[in-house]
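To whoever is on call:

I kicked off a structure prediction for a single chain this morning and the downstream step that reads the tokens threw a length-mismatch warning. I double-checked the sequence; it's 403 residues and nothing unusual in it as far as I can see. Pasting both halves so you can look.
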Amino acid sequence: MDPVERERRRTRRACKRTGSQDDRAKRGDTNVLRSLSVGNIDDNEVTDDLELKSGTLECKVMAPRYSLLREVGRGSYGVVYEAIARKSGARVAVKKLRCDAPENVELALAEFWALTSLEKRHENVVQLEECVLQRNGMAQKMSHGNKRSTQYLRLVETSLKGERVLSCPEEPCYLWFVMEFCEAGDLNQFVLSRQPDPRTNSSFMLQLSSAVAFLHQNNIVHRDLKPDNILISERSGVPVLKVADFGLSKVCAGLSTGMNQGDDVENKNKPKSMNINKFWLSSACGSDFYMAPEVWEGHYTAKADIFALGIIIWAMIERITFIDAESKRELLGTYVRQGAEIIPVGEALLENPKMVLSIPQRRRSQMSESLRKLLQDMLAVNPQDRPDAFELHNRMGHLTCAA
């Protein structure tokens, strides 16, 4: 693949970027959050949607009151704050996404749909407490569907049509996501600030495979698994991983399957849901160093999540890092060297499908033969040769128990 084609592929993906902080925007966010809480109805009260006299905005259904403590993250599409619920005193994360362009709306709705589609909680998936749709200081608590909300339906229409259908650009629209707060940062920060610990590595591998199996069981393909999007909580006294940031996720529907009389014994414990690995996706999105070969081509399934997970685990075990060109941060991630250039593994395999990956990469690696074989399977060029999420979690359980 020539450099021009490589650059074309890279610019085609929808990868989130880190932006600079803006003090004025930060002060404005504090005021918006205050306006959503001061003088509102009781925290637990929910009213019907009513139209105001102006005919432009809906009556507000207010969220519980929160106080912003500090900004903990900022990107092109939104800002994340550490906050505290005034009534309970609980610490939460509040993510504010501005819905001023179709691509922003699409990311916000993707996260909302993914997290609200989960009927059960999972310890290793970040928990959404509530979502609030806000416009000009007026707010409405979101629920899945929200068929009676004109504003919600306009957001959906904006996403589907790819053009802004909200009335006045001068009236900004936001989605506020209130989620559990993970005080230990992301996987990059946690791993690289501590000495290697085989026991922690084993725990993290099992937690990650459990989270992905849960998401795939619920027909969700994450599509942007990377250490930045894996948060860590230590409230229980031990580090617990939380897969987060579902802005590029896809909730798949259809292709429902059940257990038939002739099914394998190995598959008996799998949920009676659709076969998510037969649902084909075409939007090439994600982050370069974690994208599977087929994602670069724009034709892939949920097996792309398995590839990304293989890259993350390999980098975590061997402490393989690179410096992100834009943020200048040191990030966990494996790659292939081509002269002076480092190439994402997925892109290198796309260029040369017969390439044999050097696993482990470091000469003095303590990686076991069983883990090496598992990583090779997870990073197979052909998605059909990779384990699915349920097989992966089963193999990971045997591997970590043996360790």
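Update from on-call: the warning came from a stale cache, not from the record. Cleared it. Sanity check on the structure: Confidence is low (pLDDT under 50) at residues 11-24, 30-64, 255-272.
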